[in-house]
Design goal:
Elements lengths: L3 H45 L2 H10 L5 H12 L3 E2 L1 E5 L3 E3 L10 E13 L2 E12 L10 E5 L18 E4 L2 E2 L20 E9 L3 E2 L3 E5 L13 E2 L1 H16 L12 H4 L4 H6 L11 E6 L2 E5 L2 E13 L2 E16 L4 E11 L2
Antiparallel strand pairs: 1-9, 2-4, 3-4, 4-5, 5-6, 7-8, 7-9, 9-10, 9-11, 10-12, 13-15, 14-15, 15-16, 16-17
């Protein structure tokens, strides 16, 4: 009889101890489960890329570069292929990195996401931070501070370079990344996906469309995209060639300062035929047949032209053709003839 109170006291003490332990352990388990559910939902939203899902995706993120991630979402919506989520790991304690400065976040966890893209499996940890003042047991208690993103390592153009613009999912890129991370607004993050890419310098140059597979983490190498002249460039060069030939007949009476006359590509050919191009204002009688002007890369080919001139023995005709080159004028940002050499075809 005397031992029963002791037994009751001992039983109550054990029950209290178990209760305290459960109160400590169960919230942590619930918080871990909530963090895992947030990571899973986040990965599913990246896999979707749909409009409503993108808005939910942005609401889950808290980083130093929210504008860059909104652009990343717009690019994800136009991706050729998006990820397939394979599995989401259990939360592991992680440093609180990536969250905006002066933010109200406390502990952080890393959750590994395994996903399949372009026939291969990849894995990358996303980092979630718990909002200060919350227990972490609700999904809204967590924000993604280390998102599931990568990038393309486009080369950085130099200060004086004439560089083409890069388009991803038909959107011009204003952030040209070499590295990912650190809240650098010059870096355009991309959610993992397969994207259509193109180089353009509108309206004069463009490459064929290519494709690049972006995975989370390290920036991937860009595809080789050769930039070629557009139809507008070819039309412009043809007009410039014909204008330069027709300028041989300039009669403004100021040849010493007339740059168009000095650039006349038929002047040397006419002089070789005995034409007095300096003394006779009427030596040029015009084109008999317009030449065919072809543009291939930066090369110009002229063929089949015929011009009528006034020479010492009367009117004569010469056939001509030749080659030249053009470039992009970095002052006017338009294609301009660099050189044009025509030869006498008899």
């Amino acid at each position: 009889m005397t031992r029963r109170p002791l037994l009751v006291v001992a039983t109550v003490a054990v029950a209290v101890a178990v209760g305290i332990t459960a109160w400590v352990v169960l919230p942590k388990r619930a918080a871990a489960s909530a963090a895992q559910d947030v990571a899973r939902r986040y990965a599913e939203l990246v896999a979707s890329g749909a409009g409503d899902d993108l808005r939910e995706l942005w609401a889950m993120e808290a980083t130093e570069s929210p504008g860059a991630l909104r652009t990343a979402g717009a690019l994800l919506a136009g991706a050729e292929e998006r990820i397939e989520v394979v599995s989401v790991g259990t939360p592991q304690q992680a440093p609180r990195s990536g969250a905006p400065s002066q933010s109200d976040f406390t502990e952080a966890v890393a959750v590994e996401v395994r996903y399949r893209l372009a026939g291969q499996e990849h894995r990358w940890p996303i980092v979630l931070a718990r909002r200060e003042g919350t227990r972490g047991t609700d999904l809204g208690d967590w924000r993604v501070v280390g998102p599931l993103v990568g990038a393309v390592a486009w080369e950085q153009p130099g200060f004086a370079d004439v560089a083409s613009d890069v388009y991803v999912s038909t959107v011009r890129q204003v952030r040209r990344p070499l590295v990912v991370g650190g809240g650098d607004e010059d870096v355009q993050p991309l959610y993992p996906a397969a994207y259509r890419v193109q180089r353009r310098l509108d309206p004069y140059y463009a490459s064929e469309e290519g494709s690049v597979v972006v995975t989370a983490g390290k920036a991937v190498a860009p595809p080789e995209l050769a930039v070629n002249p557009t139809d507008r460039t070819r039309d412009r060069i043809r007009r410039l060639v014909l204008a330069r030939i027709r300028a041989c007949g300039n009669r403004d009476g100021a040849r010493d300062s007339d740059d168009a006359f000095y650039r006349c590509p038929l002047r040397d050919l006419a002089e070789a035929r005995g034409v007095d191009v300096w003394g006779d204002d009427d030596w040029w009688l015009g084109l008999v047949r317009k030449p065919v002007v072809e543009v291939d890369g930066q090369r110009i080919t002229v063929s089949g032209g015929r011009a009528r001139l006034r020479g010492p023995q009367g009117v004569l005709e010469i056939r001509f053709g030749g080659t030249g080159r053009y470039l992009l004028d970095n002052q006017a940002w338009r294609p301009a003839i660099w050189e044009l050499d025509l030869e006498d075809g008899g």
